[in-house]
Give the backbone structure.
Amino acid sequence: SPWGAIKYYRLENDIGQINSDNRKLREENRELREEIEKLTTDPAYIEKIAREEHGLIRNNEIIYQFPKSGKK
């Protein structure tokens, strides 16, 4: 058909986009697997996440918060 070449190029473009998306998803999956591994085996990493993301502290720790100032 006269539109065959156009469809072919569109499909080629679609395949390229799908392959690119697949690479990104594979990388994201790899990173998530690494995080799962750390969360299940590394106590120091768990403590880091608990402190940074959830604001948890150990017994007998004191948190000092200083106001942030924009002046130097």
